[in-house]
Amino acid sequence: MLISYKWLTMYFDPVRTDGASPTSNGAGQAFPSPEEVAKLFTFHAFEVEGIEKKGENVTLDVKILPDRAHYCLSHRGVAGELSAITGIPLKKIEPKVFPIAKVRDLKIKIEEPKLCRRYIGRVIEDVVVTDSPDWLSADLAVVGQRPINVVVDNANGAMFDVGQPLHAFDADKVVGGITVRLAKKGEKITTLDYKDITLDAETLVIADDEGPIAIAGVKGGKRAEVTMATKNLILESANFDPVNVRKTSTRLGIKTDASKRYENEITPELASSGIEMLTFFLQYCIKSPFKIGPLVDVYPNPAKQTVIDFDPSLASKLLGVEISEAKVIELLNRLEIGVTKKGKNLSLTIPFVRLDLEMPEDIVEEIGRLYGYENIKPVPMEKMQKSSMVNKNVYYQNKFRDVLTNLGFTEVYTYALQESGEVELENPLATDKAFLRKNLAGLTNSLLQGVLEAPLLGLSEIRIFEIGKVFSKGAGEHTALGIGFQTGMKKNREAIIKAEFDKIASAFKTGIGDAPEAHNLTGNVMEANLDVCIEKLSEPKEYDFAKATEVVYKKPSPFPFIVRDVALFVPSATKEVDVQNIIKQSAGDLVVRGPELFDVFEKGDKKSLAFRLVFQSYEKTLTDSEANGFMEKVYEALEKENFELRK
Fold first, then answer.
1. Which of 522, 602, 614 is CA-nearest to residue 565?
2. Burial, 13: exposed, middle or buried (Cβ in 10 Å; 0-12, 13-18, 19+)?
3. Burial class of residue 416 in the structure, from the number of CB atoms within 10 Å of its CB (0-12 exposed, 13-18 middle, 19+ buried)
4. Partner of 105 at 20 to 30 A CA spacing, among 188, 323, 422, 580?
């Protein structure tokens, strides 16, 4: 929200508004400059995302989060925060008193009291609608508003002042009384920005006897628009249900300053302040006299003021710093919270606008931020005398992890959302993520990916496992353990895989005390119900954490790698390491793995050696021709040694 610094200073009596810093108020305290205001807000209330000089004024781009939006989406609310933080008192605003004249009757009916908590209307007659005074247009422009006419601009000005959305209808265009009701399916309205909208039965509208004239809390209608020809007004100040406004605004794709405030919820008590301020602004800006009618206030269920029983020692206990009761009371008074003694406790009367204060812990948070978190010194935590309870599931899941990692397995995480399954999502993120997984079959793809990356990693086997939730329609969800094993050996592959899974089962029995009953998902992936297995195991007494090992991380290249093999015959007496060194010295700097010997066999007085090299660049994608060029240098070096290449 854009906040006008000049506008902000008007709530303090008196302050200089010429931009000089610091200025002084009536109590002799220094009034903070825009930069100082931004710093104070950042440390005590909310972030300030920018400060911008606009002519003789300055704007602050204040990030009002939902926890403070109830009262801070207004200059008055932000000024209250500044007063609470600095201790500089706010200017006392006297209630406005207007001479009430005889005007036409105004009938208001609320059919949906849960969706419209309060509706105040006022008739004003004999108005001369003109352009706004230059100062008002300039003030609104500073906070991002486009001037329209003196009535609409003052409605916007009053909203930015007190935080209550306001609206004005041309009274001569309103047929009969005003009814707040749900729209009839198929009813239509043309909004002020010329959008033709067909309404549904979930949309709350402001209607006269002929149909909708506004979408409640969102946008006014064109039919009762205030123009330069308007002579008589109906002012509106209402309170609408935040959830209904948000749904309506989202459904229609219309976001306004009014809907933003209603969506974050404001107190119905603010409606009377808003309409009185709008009336005062109109009286101030329109020089020709006009008649002001009485307020017609329909308020079915008046808001009840929150009262919190508060132990002042709770602040010291939760914040970790000693704060006296007198200091607590002083800080609460700055927030305009009524404080009365009630035995050892305090009875706190919360302002209606502070919908965020509901329990003692909320009060402690307010005390903490005003006291200053920077004033709370850190202290060491007390050592726990008794050990914490051991979570059996966590304990044994980590035991399974330890066993598998000791066997050379790596833990992976696969997607829980799949293209198919037994449990379907109501609102899927995408068509291929519309179901919860029924098993850990995603390990198969992880194995395949591992095989593709194996040359770069220098692995002849891929060993992975996963512990995660799976979901079925009948049995619900449970924790599963999936184990995947892939070997590069071509001969006896099935026997090797079976032997590996048998070794895993044996390690579980030795290291944990039992092995989960597993079933094949594929030939390379096994899965077991870990919850059933853990339930049979004994209760652990204390955590037994594995010791951390030193790990060295290396940044991987984002570019693909290229694999090349070289095979050759050498005399039987030749050492493999000597051949390996020749290849390494001639292959160049882009060899990231190898040369690794992967095949050896004897043939007469000769020995066959096969080496594998992996080339990769950190700067670009290598081409086949570049890799072939590297290998040509390797071939030349080997041929100089009179080795016979097997091409």
1. 614
2. middle
3. middle
4. 188
Query: Structural domains in the chain?
Result: 2-86 (3.30.56.10), 108-298 (3.50.40.10), 310-348+359-374 (3.30.56.10), 392-536 (3.30.930.10), 562-645 (3.30.70.380)
| Distance, CA of 10 to CA of 43 (rounded, Å) | 23
Cα–Cα distance measured from residue 591 to residue 613, given in angstroms and rounded to the nearest whole number: 7
pLDDT at 239: 98
What integer is the mean pLDDT of 256-285? 96
Tokens coding 168: 């004005």
131-156 CB burial, b ≥16 within 10 A, e <16: ebbeebbbbbebbebebbbbbbbbbb
For residue 453, pLDDT over 90 is answered with no
Residue 174 near residue 234 (C-beta atoms within 8 A) = yes
Quote the DSSP letter at residue 153: H
Q: What is the pLDDT of residue 27?
A: 45
Mean pLDDT of 163-181: 97
Instruction: Note the pLDDT tens digit of each residue in 310-366.
Output: 999 999 999 999 999 999 999 999 999 999 999 999 999 999 999 999 999 999 999
- Convert the pLDDT of each residue in 315-331 to its tens digit: 999 999 999 999 999 99
Cα torsion at 145, 151, 152, 154 (round to 10°)? 50
Strand partners, 238: 119
591-603 and 606-615 as β-strands: parallel, antiparallel, unpaired? antiparallel
C-alpha–C-alpha distance, residues 254 and 250, integer Å: 7
Q: Let me know: does 367 contact 332? Beta carbons within 8 Å.
A: yes
**pTM of the shown model:** 0.65
